[in-house]
Write a structure and sequence with these properties.
Residues 918-996 form the Carrier domain. This protein is α/β, with parallel strands linked by helices. The chain contains 37 helices and 30 strands. It is elongated and about 115 Å long.
Length: 1006
């Protein structure tokens, strides 16, 4: 069994480095993340005033992250009151874990219900110390918002993960021990993937005072690992998370791998010369154990990320332990460094900070120079121990590189890990030169978010990231479908190249109207395919799509191969060369069939499967073939025979379109038996067919009566008695071909209704030639079946226009019309537009079919950008961040209504709420606001208490108690009575209003 563990996803936030890219940049430029302690950290809290640090701590410097109070609680459906009670470390971990999972190429929603483990290293719990000792303000939310366990449990809860979930406190080694436990859980089969994380937020000066009193604190607040300048610890904070998988699983799934964990080990100092003092022998042993489990020799290790706090005793012990293993190196000494020189000692997050540094160094094949390495501590005798500090970046050679990582806890729990560079077979990013998408001719970029505002924010972030580096467009699009999914608002836009994509993303983010057009709110789709009939053909129809899309090319070639034995000439070549003979019936009909079949199969391969089908006259052949009535070869023989036999009929017939209903035309037809109704396309859209001279006489009469007409350009009088000479010959072929019952609901234009277990056999197809096309009746029946989208499968969107002129269905709704081919200039862009429209409406395409094999490579998109609008720090709830400019209100997204879906909590300000004069509504809204921390203006009838407002069982009990205080009539109401009526704010108000109205008078007036 391969016991290696792959690091497949990373996210972090450290001083001076708000994300992984900035962290790597900070390391490579030997940046300094140290600054003055922000006033927000341990200035007097309004709820608890600790003794000031002045005189007790020797420094006012440290490594601090920006905006630790910002939290996108609405994203995680956490009420403002609960968010305000939560330890900031929980908030940071939630957002960091989400982004790390995305970085692993996985949509976090896809982990729902999976045995994914969560292992969090954490050392400080200062938020709990501040809040749980403020007894007057302890609430249920304060209880669940604090505690080590909740740092891991929050992640498992909100991502719905079912694997092991635990927090680890071994002091400074906590997060590397968490990684060790995660790796072991993966190897034992307890979980198939794991999130390992570490976090530290310095809320009070307590540890700074402790470090000072213990003689461990650096006066300038900076760690100087292994340096002659080393004079103690500087505190730091931050959060980091990695996603881990067994290497064999990551490789099998084609995930990108930053680096590989070869082996880890954990031990304890035992009884040494003090519980807080380091133990060289224990460190020496844990390194040896890690090497043994990794199956490596010390001389194979190129560099080690040390614990390196910059204390005299700590550095000396660590170097001695490493020197025991590396002093005999005959080649180059092992490079040694510590990220604490950049960030300070991040305590519970120190191990994960070092792990991420090592993983990025192996990934980029460069080890950053160590800050403060210029003047190494000569007393450490590094060279004699086979060690050297990195005064400049170290370029790693080709092949496998190995690295070590140490993290030692103040109480004596030590951890060491051995990492190696990703194996050659691991997925690597594709280059932009290989980027041209060829699956459907153009790439499609999708993005989902819980609100339009979140869409705008993240579209801008994606545009900026894509503009900053050359990106393989196909891989970018594919990654967007796989990772940026799962939220209510669905954005989709196609683009032929990355530059155009960046422009379109920025345009959508800047223009609310454009964003609204490119965004949908999903839902369940019900798709109807409409297959266009004769008359829609033209030279080079779909030629652009054939050039752009291998999928369409494959299916048109397939149809051509099936037709060739019966036509004697390539229909495909006829179409693509622009031959005008495509208008001749013998070629028009098989050509339209080929296009309809190829386009229908292409859509099906892309995951657009029809729920309903309708074909206009000759279009019914492709519809029937795709509905399983007969195989392609049989359909090809039948349609080729139809066109050839019709072409052999004598000339002399014609067709006349009239803007009138069939009943209106009966008087004109009474004296012209050589003319009849051939097509009924709508209430006032009829086509007459028959003898050309007779049609001309009728045309004059209609013109005299001011009825609009148009003589059609056709070779024969289709669907008239003039077709009868060919019927016997056609019937003979049709009987040989046969035909079964459609496997999908097919709306017949022969009968004007859905076929109900009736075969489309020889009798059907013979009658289909002679009898009228009842398109209006068939289409109206189809609309009554409630499709959400009609997709026109043909070279021109003719039927979509006809369908729009029909009366609406009984429900009053009309389906969205989608046209994969819009006319002579159509190519892959229109097909991509159609797919985008269907995606916005709720369809999930088969994305793998959109891209060719060479494009199916992973790509790391920019992580999700959370809102920083809400701030939670001191007691009293949320504080909205000041903005330089108010955010423009977005127009309502298509399909976004109370009837179709419930609005996100971020949009409720524009929605109507219960009348303030309603006393029951006032009580309920006030109670919900108190329990959840919401403003009254935010609460509207169709917000859901659980899904939108973040209520849970504890909050429901508090809500019931608060309402009962104001409405005594509810005293007899049990929780069991209340629970079924908590679906929404409006439902709860209505129920309580009704209950109060029916309560006895003495209860209502009590």
């Amino acid at each position: 069994m391969d016991r290696r563990i792959a690091i497949v996803g990373i996210d972090c936030r450290f001083p001076g480095a708000p994300d992984t890219g900035a962290y790597w940049d900070l390391l490579m430029r030997s940046g300094d993340g140290i600054s003055t302690v922000p006033e927000q950290r341990w200035a007097a809290q309004e709820f608890h005033s600790p003794t000031p640090a002045e005189g007790r701590s020797n420094t006012t410097q440290g490594g601090f992250i920006d905006d630790p109070d910002a939290f996108d609680n609405e994203f995680f459906t956490i009420s403002p009151r609960e968010a305000a009670a939560m330890d900031p470390q929980q908030r940071l971990l939630l957002q960091c874990a989400w982004r790390a999972v995305e970085d692993a190429g996985v949509a976090p929603h896809e982990l729902t219900g999976s045995a994914t483990g969560v292992f969090v290293g954490i050392m400080g719990n200062e938020w709990a110390q501040l809040h749980l000792t403020d007894y007057d303000h302890v609430t249920a939310q304060v209880g669940s918002g604090n505690g080590y366990c909740m740092t891991a449990n929050r992640i498992s809860y909100h991502l719905d993960l079912k694997g092991p979930s635990l927090a680890v406190d071994t002091a400074c080694s906590s997060s590397l021990v968490a990684v060790h436990l995660a790796a072991n859980a993966l190897l034992s089969g307890e979980c198939d993937q794991a999130v390992a994380a570490g976090v530290n937020v310095a809320l009070t000066p307590a540890l700074s005072i402790f470090y000072t009193q213990a003689g461990l604190s650096a006066p300038d607040g900076r760690c100087k690992p292994f340096s002659a300048q080393a004079d103690g610890i500087g505190r730091g904070e931050g959060v980091g998370a990695v996603v881990l998988r067994r290497l064999e699983d990551a490789l099998a799934d084609g995930q990108q791998v930053y680096a590989v964990i070869r082996g880890t080990a954990v031990n304890q100092d035992g009884r040494s010369n003090g519980i807080t003092a380091p133990n060289r022998w224990a460190q020496q042993d844990v390194i040896e154990a890690a090497y043994r489990r990794a199956g490596v020799q010390p001389e194979e290790i190129t560099f080690t990320e040390g614990h390196g706090t910059g204390t005299v005793l700590g550095d000396m012990m660590e170097v001695a332990a490493l020197g025991h293993h590396h002093a005999g190196r005959t080649g180059k000494p092992m490079a040694l460094g510590s990220v604490k020189g950049n960030l300070g000692h991040t305590e519970g997050a120190a191990g994960i900070a070092g792990l991420i540094k090592v993983a990025l160094a192996l990934h980029h094949r460069t080890v950053p120079a160590s800050r403060f390495a210029i003047k190494e501590n000569e007393q450490l005798a590094l060279r004699k121990k086979g060690l050297t500090l990195l005064k400049a970046p170290l370029r790693l050679p080709r092949g496998t590189s190995l690295a070590g990582l140490s993290s030692f806890g103040m109480g004596g729990t030590n951890a060491h890990a051995v990492l190696e560079s990703a194996p050659p077979q691991a997925a690597r990013p594709t280059s932009a030169s290989d980027a041209e998408p060829t699956g459907i001719g153009t790439a499609l970029f999708t993005l989902t978010a819980p609100s339009p505002q979140a869409l705008r924010r993240n579209l801008t972030a994606q545009a900026d990231a894509l503009a900053a580096r050359r990106a393989p467009l196909g891989a970018v699009g594919r990654a967007s479908h796989r990772v940026k999914t799962g939220h209510r608002y669905r954005f989709a836009v196609p683009a032929p190249d990355t530059e155009t994509l960046v422009e379109r993303l920025r345009a959508a983010a800047a223009d609310p109207d454009l964003l609204a057009r490119l965004t949908g709110v999903g839902g369940k789709t019900r798709t109807a395919f409409l297959f266009t009939g004769q008359g829609s053909q033209y030279p080079r129809m779909t030629a652009g799509l054939y050039e752009d899309s291998p999928l369409y090319r494959r299916f048109l070639d397939e149809a051509d191969d099936a037709l060739l034995p019966h036509t004697g000439r390539s229909v495909r070549d006829l179409i693509l060369t622009g031959d005008e003979t495509v208008h001749l019936t013998r070629w028009a009909q098989p050509a339209l069939f080929a296009v309809g079949y190829a386009l229908g199969r292409t859509l099906g391969e892309l995951g657009v499967q029809p729920d309903l089908l309708l074909g206009h006259s000759v279009g019914e052949y492709a519809a029937a073939c795709l509905a399983g009535v007969f195989p392609l070869d049989a359909a090809a023989r039948l349609i080729a025979a139809r066109g050839e036999l019709m072409q052999q009929l004598p000339d002399g017939g014609g067709m006349l379109a009239v803007l009138a209903g069939p009943d209106e035309l009966q008087a004109y037809l009474a004296d012209e038996p050589e003319v009849g109704v051939a097509v009924v396309n709508g209430p006032r859209a009829t086509v007459l067919s028959g003898n050309l001279m007779a049609l001309q006489r009728i045309d004059k009469m209609l013109d005299h009566d001011h009825l609009r007409t148009r003589m059609l350009r056709v070779s024969h009088a289709f669907h008239s008695h003039l077709m009868e000479p060919m019927l016997d010959s056609f019937a003979e072929i049709a009987r040989e071909v046969g035909g079964g019952i459609p496997e999908l609901p097919l709306y017949s234009t022969l009968f004007g209704r859905v076929l109900d277990g009736e075969p489309m056999d020889a009798d059907y197809w013979v009658a289909h030639i002679r009898r009228p096309v009842l398109f209006a009746d068939a289409a109206h029946a189809l609309l009554e079946a409630g499709p959400t989208h009609t997709v026109e499968v043909g070279p021109s969107p003719v039927l979509s226009s006809l369908t729009r002129k029909l009366p609406p269905s009984a429900s009053g709704t009309r389906p969205a019309a989608v046209a994969p081919v819009r006319g002579a200039d159509s190519a892959g862009q229109d097909l991509a537009d159609a797919l985008a429209e269907l995606y916005r409406g709720g369809l999930t395409p088969r994305w793998e079919a959109v891209y060719e094999e060479r494009e199916r490579t992973p790509y790391r998109l920019a992580p999700y950008v959370f809102s920083d609008e809400h701030r939670y720090w001191a007691r009293g709830g949320p504080v909205r961040a000041r903005r330089d400019e108010p955010e423009a209100e977005l127009p309502r997204i298509a399909g976004d209504s109370a009837e179709e879906s419930r609005p996100a909590a971020t949009e409720v300000l524009t929605l109507e709420r219960p009348a303030p004069t309603d006393p029951v509504a006032e009580v309920v809204l006030g109670a919900i606001g108190q329990v959840g921390g919401y403003e009254a203006a935010e609460l509207v009838p169709y917000l859901r208490l659980y899904e939108d407002l973040g209520f849970d069982s504890v909050m429901v009990m508090e809500l019931k108690n608060r309402i009962e205080e104001r409405l005594p009539a509810l005293a007899a109401l049990t929780v069991q009575d209340l629970l079924p009526r908590l679906s929404s704010v409006g439902d709860l108000v209505d129920f309580l209003r009704e209950h109060c109205a029916t309560a006895p008078t003495e209860e209502r007036t009590a």
